[in-house]
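Intended use. Records such as the 2-hydroxymuconate tautomerase entry shown here are meant for training and evaluating sequence-to-structure methods. They are not intended to support clinical decisions.
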Amino acid sequence: MPYVNIKVTDLGVTRQQKAELIARVTQALQDVLDKDPASTFVVIDEVNTDNWGSGGEQVSERRKRLGL
């Protein structure tokens, strides 16, 4: 029973993109490890950019600094 947890920032990931991630990860586990898709779980967590850091800086602050 594989369990995959994908974490992304909450910046514009669409419902369709999440559905595609779930489908492709499930297919990869079936193809590579011969896992049954019915018992494969994929969870996508969307994290606010205030709660996501890179290079010692919040992503929200980095985006402001870069004008994004």
